[in-house]
Every structure is written in structure tokens, then in C-alpha cells.
Predict the 3D structure of the following.
Amino acid sequence: MSPKGPSPLKVRLRRLLVILPWLAERGSASLAEMSERFQISEKELVADLEQAAMCGLPPFLDELVDLYIDDDGIAHIDVPRFFTRPLRLTAPEGFSLLMAGRTALALPGAEPDGPLARALAKLEAVLGSDGMVLDLAQPASTADLVAAVDDAAEVRVSYWSASSDEVSERNLVPRAVFSDRGRWYVLADDDRSGEERTFRIDRILSCERTGRLDVVREVAVPGGDEWFDDLPAVDTATLRIGPGGRWVVERFPVRSIADDPAGGGWQVVELAVASEGWLRQLLVRLGPDAEVVAPPAWRDLGARAAAELLAARYAAD
Amino acid sequence: MGPSPLERVTNLLTLLLETRVPLTLKQISQELAGMYPDKYVALRGAFERDKALLRDIGVPIETEVLGGDQAGETAYLIDRDRYELRGLQLDDDERHALQMAVATIRSDTGQEGVWKLGGSVLPSSSVVTNVAQHDALPTLRAASGSRTTVAFRYRGTERELDPYGLLLREGFWYVIGHDHRHQEVRTYRVDRIEGDVTLRQGASFERPDGFDVRAAFPADAKLLGEADDGASSAEVAVDPPLAAVVRGELGDAAVVREDAAGVAGAVVFRVPCVNRDAFRSWVLGLGHHAEVLGPPEVRADLVAWLRAISASVGGAA
């Protein structure tokens, strides 16, 4: 985690203003502990502390920081007047803390009157009550899956895949539960593919423990700028998308995007496509707001899909 | 060799914290002898960079334009009461709970906040929520917390809003508040705000008692807006296995009857369709597994949509 090479000045100063009050409160601490706690290499830590010890206002009578690092790697420090307390929370920090707290309170198993709720109340008293609400409604199986992650408990699920339009039975060992763009997913070892796969929890039709316990294993959860689905994308389609189809760009994996030279708010979008069935459905939803440019074989895919749906469901109309 | 940048900016911070009267740049450079360049333009440049850096990490530097002998000159100081984090005493269990909460959103700014509150490195979490980040959010939250009016540009128009609250729903952030120009409560998508959000210093407001952003914002997109022909809900038949997915989404209360048309497991749901676009998109997202049964005008609307697509070549008219 610790960055390579010297950190930018801003990072160093911000970190110093956190470390000094922390150290001032204790009087001394080991370099190893501080290095771990503040995610900084011991070398950088010593360099920054020594810099701080050199600071002081001319004529240098009242030194800012009195520092001594002993042979056992323990830093002893005296912070006379300034920097005995941390800098106030910035607006982004305040926002992140409150948002994190409210997020966690909305998760399965949260205690509405527990320590987190008390911490949030104290934060709000300092930062102002803001009427922020996070709607993180979870599908029914979410709590069971979170518990299964903690126990590394294998579950038997029946799962509907939108990409293949099939229901499958599979055994999963859930490794992490996460939400992204308002949907909940479970990342699990999947016995059918023999791989780690991501499943949408609202498409898990049933979920029961098999009784087998695996060993807990930490996995990397995709971040908000990554994409995932129960099937890897197999193709790319180029679409012209009108103003009414803007949500597509926000919801689905886009490989490139450009304004259409023809204007009118249209965009030319290269979209990752998991299956032909998925694209058919998307084109029918978009209607006049989408046009397939490439590949040529899909130019009439939307028209065909609409005709088939009419024949299957609305033939008598 | 001159002082390091870290040493210089730390000394500037110390000086501005210590001084009881605002200091001009000339006084600052005299106090910090040898730290800043002698030539005025270089001095001003270096000072402005340091000042911007300090403000960037949240240091509240006050400015005052002087009169008298120094008329027109700007002077600077830091109010220690505003600089330090005060009034926030978290118990150990509260701090720990907050740290766990920040781990679920994996936020770097949240980590900075945790450090200031005396916490340590974020643990890994079996539940992760990827929450969309926007530069405008901390400002909007702070404005809502301090009851300060904000201004921003949206769809090419300047807006003035009393932000009553923020809502995260289905992965999107909304700000809800009293719009000055329209004299009513309005909702804006935060990610569609164009440019910066600015605080209207001195323009404050009262949030109505008991205001709840959830109540001000329909829970279901299919309820947004007004229907052209008055139909507010429709009956939709859904085949197994998707019936189970839809039941999870809409709840048991939406079930009209089961085993519809003699198909085991098929379910008829009553679905809001006030917003016909959202309704149509939702139904078509279920592909050939769903059929709009009625009322007739809603069904006819969907059939007309599908016919228009099937008659087009290449998907668009």
C-alpha cells in the first residue's frame, strides 16, 4: 500500500497534521506501529518527523516539535503548542464519514441504536444534520449471503441468468457481497464454472446452505469503475443512442463514447455485449432512441426482436 | 540550501495560527526570514501556492482587506477555533464502528477522516458498497448541514436551491430542495450538475419540520410524472422463473393472482405505470417472460411501441 518514492507535499503535510496530534497525545510510539497505522514507510515517516522538528518560527526560540528517535525505533516527541489537535474535518471527509456510517447502518445486521448510530449522532452534532438518505434496499437473500461469506459456508442456489435466459442450479462459496449502481451482487467460487464469478442477488431464486464449510478467503471486490456480470462480455456493438437512451451509458459497460456528428444530442457508443439476447432486449427497450451501426448482422436485431415479441405475446391485438 | 517546501508551509501554518492580528504578505515574508524568495513576484507566487495547498487540505485561512496606512492590502490569519477539530469525542466502540463503516465504502477521504478521529487503517470488509462519487456532493451536504443556499448550473440554466437533503437511490445521487425561481420543491440529479456548486454565503434557510427526502421523492421510477391517459397501474403477467424475481422486487402486495392462465408458477402483478416510459422499459426488460394484460390503453401503447420498432430497419425511424 505504501507509495513508491516521496509523496506529494500535500499528502505529506496532511499526514503530518494527523500524526503529530496522535503522537503528542501518547508522548512516544514505535516507528513500526506508526508505519502500519498511517500506511507510510518508516523511512518516509522519519524524514517527515525530522522535517517537522526543523520547523519553528524565527528566532527559533520556541521549537515547534521536539523529537528524539531512540535505538529501539521508538519516537519520543513533545509538541509544545500547535498541532496538539487534529485539523477539523474537511467537507469531503465529513461527507465520506457520514455517508459511510449511514451506508453501514442500512446493511444487514446493523444495530439501529448501537455504537455506529451513536457515532453518527455525534458527527451530525458537529457537521450539521443534513437530511442525507441512502436507499440501499437489499434483495431477500442478502443477509444470508453475508453470513455465508463470514462462515465461508457453501450454498445451493438456483439462479436466473439474463444473458443466457436460463435457470441453473449451482453450489457457491460466497466470498464477498457488494452493491454497485444500486444493485447487489455476490462474488463466489462457482462449482459449475470452476471459477470465481459474480452473481446478481435479486436473480437468486432460492438459496440454502449445504452444510459444507470452506476456508475463509479474502477476494478483491471490483470498484465502481469496473464492470462485471454473470457472463463475460463476448462482443462489441456500435450503437447510435438518442437523448432518451442516455441511461444506457450510465448503466452498462461502454468501451468508447463520442458525440454523433449529426448532433441532436445523439451519441455513438461502443457497448460491451454479453449475449445477443441481452442486446435484443436492450434494443426493444430503447426503441426509436437506438440504432445499431455495427456489426451489420445486428442492424435489424431490434426490429426482429420486437416482431417476435409481438407474435409471442400480442398476436391477437 | 534553503528550507524544504514541507518546512516552509508548516512554518506558514504555524505563523498564521500564532498571530492575533492579520498579517500582510510583507509581514509574513519578514517573519519567515529566508523561507520565501526576496523578489516580489516570486514571493507572491510561492505564497499563493502554499496558501492554496493549506486551504486544499481544509485549513481555514481568513482574509481581511486593510485600511489606513496599508489601505487595499490583504492580510491573513487562521482562527484556531475554526482550525482544530473540537467537540467530537468518540468512545472506542464508536470509533471502531465508524472505521468498519468506512471500510465498507473503501473511501480514501473517509480514511483521512478516520485518522483525524484517532482511528487506524481500514480493515477489509465482507460487504462493500460502491457509491458513486461526485465533486459536488461534499459541498451540497455541507450546505444542507449548515442550511446555506447553493447555486449551480443544470441543463444550461442557473439554479438557486435550498438543499433540504440528499438521496442515493438505485445508484444515483439526487439533491432535493426548495428551488428559488420555481418556488417549489424540486429534485436534481447530482451527476448532471454542470460545473461547481457554490455556497451563497449569508443566504440561509429553514428546512420544513419533519422533511424526509424519501417522502419528497417517489420510491418507484414507474410512479414519477403524470400519465397521459390517467391509467396509474397495469396488470402484468410474468412467467416462471422471473415471477420470483419480480415478486422479490415488488413484494407480495403487488400479486393479483398466481398460476395465471393455467401456467404453474406464473404470476399476475399490479405494477405502477404513471411514468409510461419507465413502465415500458421495465416490462420489456423482462423480455418474452412478461405480458401486459391491461388496461387496454396501456397494452395498446406497448403494442404500438413494438410495431414501430418492428417496422423500422436498423432499429430507428
